[in-house]
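#structure-requests
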Amino acid sequence: MRSGEERLRYYAEHFDTVEANSTYYRLPDEELVAKWAERLPDRFVMHVKAFGMMTRHPVKVDALPPDLRDAAPVDERGRVDRPPRELRSEVFARFHAALEPLRSAGKLGGILLQFPSYIVCKPLSFEYIEWAKEELRGDHPLVEFRHRSWLEEENRAQVFSFLEELGATYVVVDAPKTEAKNLVPTVLARTSPMVYVRMHGRNAGTWNARGRSAAERFDYLYSRDELREVLAPMRELAWDAQEAYVMFNNNGRSRATGNGDDDSSGWVSQAPTNALMLQEILARGS
């Protein structure tokens, strides 16, 4: 099992981008971010997932910096409950400040705003996204929806037009093909000069199973045929884009097949294995 530092070094040796997800659970520490910036090579891009409170997810009050906890209303489960706008704005400000080492080094990509499945397509949600974009203070928003109402046919044009006017990137998602409300269909669209695709896997059996962890939900290793299947439409979407990124969930491991990031126990980490597969397919042109 690699440490976080070892994984980052591995990614930097094999890829030119990565998505930081630890920042979803706690506000990033500027000292740690400075180490990221120092260890990453030039022209490497790190995208950063927004802290949960920034995207209206429930967070434990102890995930906040100590000096902000007294200002946070808390529910019976110890979670921040309907925080005032001023507190949420302060969280945005601290998140932004902590990322300065990456920003000044030219290695900061977009900020992933992954909204939970209870954020549905309605006027108040549009207003919040617009406010959140301003709170990013110039950093580029990558907007991912988890409720299918955003991508229903009667709403798509409005949603994509809104994101385009906002200067935000719509995040394309590949996920299990079911009708669950918290599973959005794969809709190919671009609302900025950037294409951003998140490959969540196709494990329909674990996605909404009660008591399962995130690692179990996203437990999936794409086959080469599946990657080839998604590559053609993605290439068409990205043909005149300035940047294009494909990200895989790094929540699980699968039995080794003789390719990719094999470890001594006969297992592979799914995200780097699939990323290396995609690189190979792109290099071969098929």
